[in-house]
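Annual report, structural modelling task.

Input specification for the zinc ion complex:
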Amino acid sequence: MERLRLRAGMVLDAEAVLGARDVVVAGGRVVALEPFGTPAAAGEEVLGDGRSLLMPGLVNAHTHLAMTLLRGVGADEPLERWLERHVWPRERRMAPEDVYWGALLGAVEGLMGGTTAFVDMYFHADAVARAMRDAGVRASVAVGLAGEGEAFEAALERAGRTVADWRGAVGGRVEVRLGPHAPYTCPPASLRRTARAAEELGCGIHIHLAETEGEVERALAEHGRTPVQLAADAGLLDRPAQVAHVVWPRAEDLPLLARTGVAVAHCPASNLQLGSGIAPALALADAGVRVAVGTDGPASAPGLDMLDGLRLAWLLAKGARRDPSRPTARDAFAWATRGGAQALGRDDVGRIAPGAAADLVLARLDRPGLWPPPDDPYAVVVQGLRGQDVRAVVVDGRVRVRDGRPVGVDLDALRREVMARARRLKGGAA
Ligand SMILES: [Zn+2]
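The model returned the following structure:
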């Protein structure tokens, strides 16, 4: 295992601004914080310098990485037409290897922008998990499930095998959970079945809830319950649960989400692109709900740049409430790091301290747009930092991006694969 010394003029996590430090990494963990410039021990690789900033890796708390293969399709369509005319025809043609290459591309794109962990949901989840293993990122991969009856039972059975196959794999870096798509695609009986299966398997849940206003109105009309209540009724929120969106919660949903300790992935770019609205992230946080940030899939958002997502979350919440005082840059930074760690169910992720998982991002503050840096180091990240400023990324103690380039991934080969696969998937689709 590599032994690393990450050196930066500014080290920070959501807990504290640590200033100029050397952070020593060995065996996948942060082992020590030492004074800046401490001479390296034999065999230590030194990364960074006085003009660098070191922070915990960002956690993309909701995405569908393989949708890189569908990038930009149907960009101006509302959700239902976007799915029916553009997404589903392509997805029906997708083989596991398409999903593998699409997810690998997504992981590399995210890594190069400072994301070290992903919460994903897709079909062919085994292929997604393999891509996460090979990209070297941390991931919670949900097996996408929808429908009812015998077909649903069969899918659930297969999903259970995938969960079991990945248990404890690659040192726990990749885990698989169940992903009932949403209450509008999974009737209450299927949601209940999923909750029972998750309990038997000892795994978590990932689900979309209250993404659009229409979804909430239909759930109330058909079931007399909100999507959040339907998930809670089924027992899904009693499992370790990651919930995406919650753009349109009713007042009664907030205590349900807070009480069960689920993490809500706020996906501002996707909610804007699909015209779904602006999630009340601050109201959720104030009600005691754990808030994280996600990009959603790169077909319903401009891409997988979590620094963009973080900045949007920070700006939108101020604008939506016409109150510039909250969230602070530090609040938003915490959502994308500690909040994401809670979505992963990992207390050792998203912070920089001895014993913490070594998932770290080193950025270099040499772009004119970063001069002079704001006094608040969190504002340096939230207002100023861009994906292109990321120079090195470490996941689980291993260098996965060095000098701004991914390690161990042939970008030319990756490009050839995804271009050919995206062309084939298009077929006769719009
Ligand atoms: Zn989604």
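The radius of gyration is 21 Å.
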